[in-house]
Amino acid sequence: MKHLSIIFLFLVSFQIDAQELFVVTEPASNVPAGSIGVRVGQSLMDNKHESGSMYNLTPEVTWGINKNLMVRTSAFLSNQDNGLGLKGGGFYAKYRFFSVDDLQSHFRMATFGRYSYNNSFFNQEAIDLANGNSGYEAGLVATQLIHKVALSSSVSYVRALNNPDYSFPDALGKNAINYTFSVGKLMYPKKYTSYKQTNINAMLEFTGQTITENGKSYLDVVPSIQFIINSQARIDLAYKKELYSSMDRAATDGVFLKLEYTFFNVTK
Question: Which of 77, 81, 109, 113 has the greatest number of CB atoms lying within 10 Å of its CB?
């Protein structure tokens, strides 16, 4: 009876966490303690300043240090200078400081920070720590899950710095507020019986930014579909569309593809 109870709690726990793996935003939940996640993110965006498309490649490694703390390292590659090349890298950390868990629901809050190094030339007013700007970010994120639906929202402060070979333009604002809202739902399976079942999640994410010096802002919407295979492999496919913008941006609309694999119990 004890073993059956443990198995039941494991299945419920996995069903709950499965809805919090968003594509372009980060929830308050962490990766499993002791796990190592390897991910490759790709995006192909329309280039508003030049003919052709802007391609970005982001390999990442995530480590769940414990149940409350995770860290991630990233490398940034793009075709910005007539050929795919390394533009920089980044470090991200998230600490979950509040959690209320029920049988099929939970609420969590976390604080996070990010530092990015980029050596691209400045080609837009928007601050993007993944594809163009050196700088740092600090913020809060809250996530509520009820049965098969997850709601998550974050707010953060972003500061752009000089890139190694390019000084930040005086005419642009270097301070901004980022904000996100995401909703995800488990679409399949309707009834969960095994961790080996493929999960299919549908999501809708909103990401926005406001430059504090001049009030310029943008808002994007990102619908996506996600497949989780055997509880370890993950495939994300998303499309980003600009809803509103009062600032100049180099790339607004395009597709995302992310591939990820998690190795459990690597560290204790």
Answer: 77
d(CA 9, CA 7): 6
Please tell me whether the peptide bond between 189 and the residue prior to it is cis, using omega within 30 degrees of 0.
yes
Burial class for 191, CB neighbours closer than 10 Å (0-12, 13-18, 19+): exposed
pTM exceeding the 0.85 threshold for the entire prediction: yes
Q: Where are the alpha helices (DSSP H) in 18-110?
A: none
What is the spatial distance between Cα 58 and Cα 20, in angstroms, rounded to a whole number? 21
Which DSSP string do the residues of 98-144 spell out, in sequence order? Answer: EEEE-SSEEEEEEEEEEEEEE-PPP--SS--TTTT-EEEEEEEEEEE
Residue 227 · residue 203 · CB < 8 Å: no
In angstroms, the CA 163 to CA 122 distance is 9
Give, in degrees to the nearest 5, the angle at Cα 243 between 204 and 91: 60
pLDDT at 221 (0 to 100):
98
Q: What is the pLDDT of residues 11-44, one digit of tens each?
A: 333 333 445 789 999 999 999 999 999 999 999 9
Tokens of 198: 């493929």
Whole-angstrom distance, CA of residue 118 vs CA of residue 88: 4
Residue 8 CA to its chain's centroid (Å): 30
